[in-house]
TrEMBL record:
This is 1-phosphofructokinase. Signal peptide: none annotated. It comes from the Bacteria. Keywords: Kinase, Transferase. It comes from Lentilactobacillus parakefiri. GO terms for molecular function: phosphofructokinase activity. Residues 1-80 form the Carbohydrate kinase PfkB domain. Transmembrane segments: none annotated. GO terms for cellular component: cytosol. InterPro entries: Carboh/pur_kinase_PfkB_CS, PfkB_dom, Ribokinase-like. Pfam families: PfkB. PROSITE patterns: PFKB_KINASES_2. SUPFAM superfamilies: Ribokinase-like.
């Protein structure tokens, strides 16, 4: 619901965090829900930034929206499971 409202305001796509329940990607053609991998949350600082970075990096490297979104959720979750920010090698 809120994702569609943000699209009406002019956004081309939206990622909505659901915290520990995952995230939702919405654009004019589709909506995709992703569930977080299971693990021990250590520190959520920077998780949203890592999610966005994972999405941008995935799209820039030619991944489909679905695969880029999976990478985005994995990146944000990896950050939450570590004391430091996630790196490409982590």
């Amino acid at each position: 619901k809120y994702g569609k409202e943000i699209l009406k305001m002019g956004a081309q796509s939206v990622i909505i965090s659901l915290g520990g329940d995952g995230a939702i990607y919405v654009d004019k053609k589709q909506s995709i829900k992703a569930v977080n991998p299971q693990g021990q949350v250590v520190n959520t600082v920077g998780s949203g930034d890592s999610t966005v970075a994972g999405m941008v990096a995935g799209l820039a490297s030619g991944l489909s929206i679905q695969d880029a979104f999976k990478q985005a959720v994995a990146s944000g979750t990896a950050t939450a499971f570590d004391e430091d920010l996630a790196t490409r090698d982590a």
